[in-house]
Design goal:
This protein is of the alpha+beta class. It is built from two helices and three strands. It has a three-stranded mixed beta sheet. Helix 1 packs across helix 2.
């Protein structure tokens, strides 16, 4: 039998809506005991997430960014959180 070379050019793109991304990030922030989520606003524009608000430590700042990056569909995070002691 003669084998025919095959080419696989399939590209998978997950369908994630920006409102789903926003809700998943807000839920993750609320679950994390180290983050006071009530002072954080999450904005989404496609795969870009912007975090705004006030946190109490650099750890909280970094944890919030990590939580945002961990959500499916996030391509980049603009962390505009202010640290106030």
């Amino acid at each position: 039998m003669k084998q025919i070379p095959s080419s696989n050019e399939i590209e998978l793109k997950p369908t994630v809506h920006t409102t789903d991304i926003k809700v998943k990030i807000e839920d993750a922030l609320k679950r994390d005991a180290q983050i006071e989520a009530k002072d954080i606003t999450v904005e989404t524009s496609g795969a870009l997430v912007t975090l705004r608000g006030r946190v109490h430590s650099w750890r909280e700042h970094d944890d919030a960014e990590h939580a945002a990056f961990s959500a499916p569909g996030v391509g980049s995070v603009s962390n505009l959180l202010t640290v106030s002691y």
